[in-house]
Amino acid sequence: MGKVYVFDHPLIQHKLTYIRNKETGTKEFRELTNEIAGLMAFEITRELPLKEVDVETPVAMAKCHMIAGKKLGIIPILRAGLGMVDGILELIPAAKVGHVGLYRDPDTLKPVEYYVKLPKDIEERELIVVDPMLATGGSAIEAINVMKKRGAKNIKLMCLVAAPEGVEEMQKAHPEVDIYLAAMDEKLNEKGYIVPGLGDAGDRLFGTK
Length: 209
Ligand code: PRP
Ligand code: URA
Fold this sequence. Notes:
- The chain has a single domain, classed as Rossmann fold, CATH 3.40.50.2020.
- 33% of the residues lie in helices and 32% in strands.
- The chain has helices at 10-20, 26-44, 82-91, 138-149, 164-173, 201-206; strands spanning 4-6, 50-56, 61-67, 72-78, 96-97, 99-104, 111-117, 126-130, 133-134, 154-162, 178-184, 187-188, 194-195.
- Strand 4 (72-78), helix 3 (82-91) and strand 5 form a beta-alpha-beta unit.
- Helix 1 (10-20) packs antiparallel against helix 2 and helix 2 packs across helix 3.
- The longest helix has 19 residues, at 26-44.
- It starts with a strand and ends with a helix.
- The site of uracil (URA) has 10 residues, from helix 6.
- This is Uracil phosphoribosyltransferase.
């Protein structure tokens, strides 16, 4: 069963409080989403293996450490996942970025696929799927289905806010995928929105309605 990690770092929780607030405008929402994504990426990459390297400093030779050849891939689920990419790339600039385009049909709440473009060597990469919201779980489950069909093996899911219903569905559908969150909320409402959540993440990021 995939593990669920909720990051309780004070900076993450502080910034999340601002983006939940309905008074927070598009500019701040976008900046804070990227900042939270970067902080979460910092925590997620804590276990990356290191290799020892010799470096000549201006004073002497030093035994130093570098990340040991792990190839990373960031896979935002369009559109709202895009709002997390820059914050992660600031820390991991060499990561490749793939895109899975899905929108949730407002009546059926089922994901509808409209675009997929993934790194060629996806099977060799450690992949982080990013989307601010895990509500019913339908979009993230389908995105990972699409990725697995193209060879993806090593997958983590990173979301800002999740509903327990979506986490449960994800654990059933993809039990090997660990889930990283900034918050686990109470429930879904009758329209499939996370309660208390932060509203429609895509609309708030891009200023659409
Ligand atoms: C939102 C969100 C997730 C999905 C979550 O996207 O960004 O992708 O809904 O809901 P689910 O877990 O019930 O599938 P939306 O469909 O609104 O598209 P957008 O990102 O283009 O705004
Ligand atoms: N998608 C969102 O953007 N917000 C929700 O609360 C649920 C799905």
